[in-house]
Amino acid sequence: MTPKILVVGAGAVGGYFGARLAASGHDVTFLVRPRRQAQLSATGLCLVSPLGDATLTPRMVTADQLTQPHDIVILSVKAYSLAAAIVDMAPAIGPQTRIIPLLNGMQHLDVLSSRFGHEAVMGGTCFIVSSLDGEGRIHQAGVTPRLVFGPLVAGQDASTMAEALRAPGFDTVPSPHIMQDMWNKWSLLASLGTLCCLMRANVGEVARLAGGTDFVHATIKECTSIAAAAGYPLADDTINGIVKRLTQPDSTLTSSMFRDLSQGAPVEAQQIIGDLVTRARMHGVATPILGLTDLNLRAYELRRDSR
Ligand SMILES: NC(=O)C1=CN([C@@H]2O[C@H](COP(=O)(O)OP(=O)(O)OC[C@H]3O[C@@H](n4cnc5c(N)ncnc54)[C@H](OP(=O)(O)O)[C@@H]3O)[C@@H](O)[C@H]2O)C=CC1
Ligand SMILES: CC(C)(CO)C(=O)C(=O)O
């Protein structure tokens, strides 16, 4: 039987992966809120992508219409929307449901497991550069996106789920070491987020500054030291890959958190940076750069909240 997939959040990430899956014939429904539902009903779900543009008519439900358990739930809301999303998606979670969260950071795993049980929650992460424009179209840029997921407890079988999550337009990667993958991604993301948000610049702009790459090296060192202290040391070639990616003088790469910050939108500061600083303190790892980024982002949030 074709697995029933629910994508919670039809934004830049969930909209991209969900649209690619739906376009290739998978049984995909999007859980949306009324404003996004109205927008998608009017325009269709539009992808603008170097891998091929697409517009489709998505199958959507709002929380009050969600009654059936689904086999796979792809959770792709921002961290600050997690609590409400958990309430809204609850009817979709049955005894056999597997949730694949694509949120950045790590805190959501405990929150989801305490609500839905450890068996329901798998590890997940994604590599994609995507954003929404003013009309709600999804713009994906850069290399082929990657969807990575894997078991956190016995009985979760990522390889049999892989077929249900394979589609042209992204790579599907079932992983036997998803916690390490999530720490690798977190180290990359926190380094990139720090680089962009502290310097208010993209990768290439910082790399071209005198002293810019020293700052990037020091930032990556802090992030990877925390991962190692937490029991997930990054392999040398993974660290070298992050260094290479974040020191390219011609790169226009930014983090999604920086793109949000540039628009004056809410940011996932606590999930991406604050939580890492907290874990560093627990392990006695010094974080002068991440600590500054944390303070910087909290000041941004304070000003934003007081507007
Ligand atoms: N964008 C990127 O390049 C990347 C982002 N990520 C991570 O992925 C996660 C999602 O980010 P992204 O897709 O960019 O965020 P977006 O803001 O683009 O999308 C989030 C979507 O979730 C929807 N949503 C929120 N709450 C609910 C709810 N209760 N029910 C239904 N829909 C809901 C929002 O809908 P509404 O319109 O109603 O507010 C919005 O469409 C984040 O943790 C981010 O850090 C990871 C890798 C790359
Ligand atoms: C690091 C990156 C670009 C990889 O997908 C990302 O996750 C983000 O910008 O949020």
TrEMBL record:
Belongs to the ketopantoate reductase family. It comes from Komagataeibacter nataicola. GO terms for cellular component: cytoplasm. InterPro entries: 6-PGluconate_DH-like_C_sf (IPR008927), 6PGD_dom2 (IPR013328), ApbA (IPR003710), KPA_reductase (IPR013752), KPR-Related (IPR051402), KPR_N (IPR013332), NAD(P)-bd_dom_sf (IPR036291). GO terms for molecular function: 2-dehydropantoate 2-reductase activity. Keywords: NADP, Oxidoreductase, Pantothenate biosynthesis. Its EC number is 1.1.1.169. It comes from the Bacteria. Pfam families: ApbA, ApbA_C. Residues 178-291 form the Ketopantoate reductase C-terminal domain. Catalyzes the NADPH-dependent reduction of ketopantoate into pantoic acid. The keyword Signal does not apply. This is 2-dehydropantoate 2-reductase. The keyword Cytoplasm does not apply. It catalyses: (R)-pantoate + NADP(+) = 2-dehydropantoate + NADPH + H(+). It is an enzyme of class 1 (oxidoreductase). Residues 5-152 form the Ketopantoate reductase N-terminal domain. Pathway: Cofactor biosynthesis; (R)-pantothenate biosynthesis; (R)-pantoate from 3-methyl-2-oxobutanoate: step 2/2.
